[in-house]
Design brief:
about 130 residues; flat
């Protein structure tokens, strides 16, 4: 995807999409395209509402652990230490969606396979006998 001047296009964040869509609606109106402009504005409003509702969701420590990738114990410790605000009650902590830490996804690890030059001559012969020459 490229931008208007040949460089890569700036991809907006989910939170930035409503403003981006409203800007596109304004541009469409300049060229007389009222129905698509109105559709973009309606979508922008719906997304903003969904984002506000999402941020009001709270999770128990078990649910928060499932969402974040951190353990229940670690999240509980962060709440006790005040590093994450408690959106629940004492002895029944909850974590608001907006304060939920997220573990970065682990990089996939490729399985190590022996390189042919790491195999002994006998291993190569046995491999050829078993698999045939490819």
């Amino acid at each position: 995807m490229t931008g208007g001047r040949g460089g890569p296009a700036k991809v907006p964040t989910v939170e930035g999409l409503p403003a981006d869509w409203r800007g596109r609606a304004k541009a469409l109106r300049r060229y007389g395209s009222e129905p698509p402009a109105l559709a973009l504005e309606l979508c922008a409003g719906e997304l903003e509402e969904a984002l506000v509702n999402r941020d009001e969701i709270t999770y128990s420590l078990v649910e928060a652990a499932r969402e974040s990738g951190y353990s229940r114990e670690h999240l509980g410790r962060l709440v006790r230490e005040g590093k994450i605000p408690n959106a629940g009650r004492p002895n029944a902590p909850r974590i608001a969606h907006g304060h939920l830490p997220r573990k970065a996804p682990a990089e996939p690890q490729l399985a190590e396979s022996p390189r042919p030059r790491q195999l002994s001559g006998a291993q190569i012969v046995h491999s050829i006998i078993r698999k045939g020459i490819e």
